[in-house]
Amino acid sequence: MRQSKLFPKTIKIAPKDAVSASHKYLVQAGYVDMLQAGVYTYLPLAWRVIGNINRIVREEMNTEGAQELLMPALQPKGIWEETGRWSGSLSEVMYQFKDASNKDFGLAATHEEVVYDLMRRFINSYKDLPVAVYQIQNKFRAELRAKGGLMRGREFMMKDLYSFHLSAEDLNEYYKKMIEAYKRVYSRCGLEAKVVEASGGVFTDNFSHEFQVVSDAGEDKILYCDGCDWAQNSEITKLKVGDKCPKCGQPLKEGKSIEVGNIFNFGEKYAKDMNGYVNDDKGEKLPILMASYGIGISRLVATIVEKYHDDKGIIWPEAVAPFKVHLISIKKDAEAEKVYNELTLKGIEVLLDDRDVSAGAKFADADLIGLPWRLVVSDKAGVKIEVKKRNESASRLLDLAEVLKEVI
């Protein structure tokens, strides 16, 4: 990709309402554009990041036997009345309206009702269970405090997976597998996410599990232990900072954190509310059990930036970066073209800064955009290429063969 053709250009002035590093840098570097509070356009650079995150998510969900589909965002009132959530627990956050024929509809705040209706109509035998399906789709919630860029949106991207089981044992086993799958997703994205016991909120009366990344930019507070994996959301915990960890005995810590995912074990709740039953091999009528598993894709983009940035801009982990290499040409366009072509032939994604601007402007934009590798072709470097990783201060002079070994 040639930077002269990249849409849009970077901007020098940070948004006035930016309260977080991710909001500031994602706007300035041309990753997102705000249409209104909590509603953003994912521009080409951000869409490439999201594509990389979605690839990781799909690989891990598929590994656990889940199948991808896509469900409607426009949902009729009736299906929500079965569970009482149309006028109940989700009525304050769900966008609800009437169409031209005076029928009631809502925009998808979540998909439990839709997916359970799907399953109760297609699961005809105990032999059809277990089954797990997932989607990556935008959700809509009437957030009163839409702020912080992609951290808290009214329209946001989510991966939501739903699993269905005949026995509690089978559900619990899959639930545990998904916890490990989620850990792998976050690790591959460069994040350490703690598994935190939490309230079920408006989704269930049972405790749920959140995946929280410790960060000063977070809105949540968790109590956690550095000696083991114990963690609880401060909203439900009865312990306090300095108390002994109930699991390993070390002193507990408290920290602000960003929720990047959550999972809920609904058990037979939806079977009771929506009449979802199937006969087992003995003819006994049993409820179709369900659990749900969500990852905030767009929030994950912001969380990665919160964890990986400096005072100059973003520092993307390689696995999610929009391009691997930022190639800068300073008065040596022919040589830069040669390097660009060689890297591209090797399958390396390159952003070539071929713009007619100063070297200082090119370096500043490279730091702001935050690609993992910066290569500079210039008279100063001669026949060599100046190589620097975004998270390092020192650069090296290498020939093209050495560069290829480094970045592949």
Looking at how many chains there are and whether they match, the oligomeric state comes to: single chain
| The CATH topology of the largest domain | BirA Bifunctional Protein, domain 2
In the CATH hierarchy, what is the class of the largest domain?
A: Alpha Beta
Question: What spatial form do the alpha-carbon principal axes imply?
Answer: elongated
* Structure annotation, total helices: 10
Give the total of domains. 2
Residues in helices, as a percent range? 25-40%
Task: Report the CATH superfamily of the largest domain.
Answer: Bira Bifunctional Protein, Domain 2
CATH architecture of the largest domain: 2-Layer Sandwich
Structural class by SSE content: alpha+beta
DSSP strand content: 25-35%
**Chain-averaged pLDDT:** 95
Radius of gyration: 24 Å
Distance between the termini: 18 Å
Low-confidence stretches: none
Main beta sheet: strand number and arrangement?
A: 9 strands, mixed
Report the strand count: 23
Question: What does it look like?
Answer:
This protein has about 400 residues and is an alpha+beta fold. It folds into 2 domains: about 5-310, BirA Bifunctional Protein, domain 2; about 325-405, Anticodon-binding domain (Rossmann fold, 3-Layer(aba) Sandwich), CATH 3.40.50.800. The protein has 10 helices and 23 strands. The chain has helices at about 20-30, 45-65, 75-80, 110-120, 170-190, 270-275, 295-305, 335-345, 360-370, 400-405; strands spanning about 30-35, 40, 65-70, 75, 95-100, 105, 130-140, 155-165, 195-200, 210-215, 220-225, 230-235, 255-265, 275-280, 285, 290-295, 310, 315, 325-330, 350-355, 375-380, 385-390, 395-400. The strands form 6 sheets. Strands 3, 7, 8, 9, 10, 11, 12, 13 and 16 form a 9-stranded mixed sheet that branches. The protein has a 5-stranded mixed sheet with strand order 20-19-21-22-23, with helices on both faces. It has a 3-stranded antiparallel sheet with strand order 4-6-5. Helix 2 (about 45-65) runs antiparallel to helix 5. The longest helix is centred in the middle third of the chain and has 21 residues, at about 170-190.
